[in-house]
Amino acid sequence: MVESKILNVRIRHPKINFVPDVVYAQVPTLQRPNQLLQMDLLMPQVQNKLPAVIFVTGGGFISSNKARQLQLRMYLAEKNFVVASINYRTAPNSRFPQPLEDVKSAIRFVKANAQKFNVDAEKIFVIGSSAGGYLTAFAAVTNGDKIFNVGENLHVSSKISAAVDLYGISDLTKVAENFSADVQRLYDSAGSIAALFVNGVPGFGGVDGGISAHKLAAEKANPINYITKNSAPMLLLHGMADNVVSPAQSDLLFQALRAHGVAAERYLIPNAGHADEYWQQAEVFALIAQFLTNHL
């Protein structure tokens, strides 16, 4: 008789349920009066209330695909975080501050439904990359403020415990500062995504001109200008070979946070570009998880 082998298994990770397309808000855009905003939930199946992460994917302000960065989201879920990856309004159909309002709405929605989602409403984090990192930084620096709170669940605070900004923008007027003159001219053109994001679409309530043509509007759209002593602790990570968002962007934010007495850490990753394979590695995931755990 052939004997079977024994496989001894130790339980290290919880069972995780995937709950897709949960509507967290209904909002207007240029194209439609009532657009559904949704989140995908990764829910560890445990008895005790868990901390939650609002995950804000990137997409250059023109895309907000909530299916992105699954590896990091699953890693965090296996560490007993409920993870809610959201889509949000994007240019050119929307403009600042609407995407930020969406992030704040998602925070309030998860808190308002904490019992349903098995979440500890006092332990909410935000993680974002690229354009999502920009929105994450904005949510962190305006932590607990009612500014940009629009929509439903306004009785619930949008305050968070901490945030993680992966290669995000902190000053829209300086994104191409360390790049070639040609890149700087393109970035400052009226047709650049940054200009459409801040100024809107001419003829549809927006104004014409590049990002530097309307300095007051650009300043209002820069998270670095909203930092206070009440801003949430932040972890900033940037690739040293990033040729899309200069590493100088996260340094601007890091220096400003520290100058205001806000707890902040910044790590640079040699050879890492913008949203490339370096960002899917265990060292990055472990650092992020440890930062969140430190702020529980």
What would you note in describing this structure?
With 296 residues, the chain is of the alpha/beta class. The chain has 2 domains: 16-171 and 223-294, Rossmann fold; 177-221, no CATH class. It has 9 helices and 8 strands. It has helices at residues 70-78, 98-112, 114-117, 131-141, 181-187, 193-199, 215-220, 247-259, 282-294; strands at residues 16-27, 35-44, 50-56, 82-86, 119-129, 162-166, 234-239, 264-269. An 8-stranded mixed sheet has the order 1-2-4-3-5-6-7-8, with helices on both faces. Helix 2 packs across helix 4. The radius of gyration is 20 Å and the shape is globular. The chain starts with 15 loop residues before the first strand and ends with a helix.
Report the strand count. 8
Low-confidence stretches: none
Q: How many DSSP H or I helices?
A: 9
Give the overall pLDDT as a whole number: 93
Topology readout:
Blueprint: E1 16-27, E2 35-44, E3 50-56, H1 70-78, E4 82-86, H2 98-112, H3 114-117, E5 119-129, H4 131-141, E6 162-166, H5 181-187, H6 193-199, H7 215-220, E7 234-239, H8 247-259, E8 264-269, H9 282-294
Parallel strand pairs: 3-4, 3-5, 5-6, 6-7, 7-8
Antiparallel strand pairs: 1-2, 2-4
Quick structural summary:
With 296 residues, this protein is of the alpha/beta class. It has nine helices and eight strands. The mean pLDDT is 93.
Identify the notable features of this structure and list them briefly.
single chain, 296 residues, alpha/beta, Rossmann fold
